[in-house]
Write a structure and sequence with these properties.
- It is built from five helices and no strands.
- With 109 residues, the protein is mainly alpha-helical.
- The termini are far apart.
Length: 109
């Protein structure tokens, strides 16, 4: 068994790639690679956010919303759902309240 197959994929991330019948909409290897990218980014942004929050002209929520706006840009390489996941994960890592992010209504139901 390769190390790749031992990576834990949280349900919150797998949900981004499930259809209405709960089937995966992409190959598992692709989902695993996207998860690693998103988790790594959240980890990197944690350090950046901690440094910025002290110097930022705005609240923690404002900073998270700015990160989301950048990630949600079509040129970022992230889907809208991945952008929301990264910012939600980042807020968990920081222990900050996660703001209401654009597009969340489409995910509820």
């Amino acid at each position: 068994m390769s190390d790749e197959n031992q990576i834990y994929l949280p349900d919150s991330f797998l949900a981004l790639y499930r259809d209405a019948r709960q089937r995966l909409t992409a190959p598992l290897a692709e989902i695993r690679a996207r998860y690693e990218l998103c988790e790594d980014l959240a980890q990197q942004l944690e350090e950046h956010a901690r440094g910025r929050s002290i110097h930022a002209h705005g609240s923690e929520v404002d900073l998270l919303l700015r990160y989301h706006a950048g990630l949600a840009d079509p040129d970022s390489g992230f889907s809208a759902a991945e952008a929301r996941w990264v910012v939600t994960r980042l807020s968990e890592l920081l222990g900050w309240e996660c703001p209401h992010l654009p597009g969340e209504e489409a995910q509820e139901g």
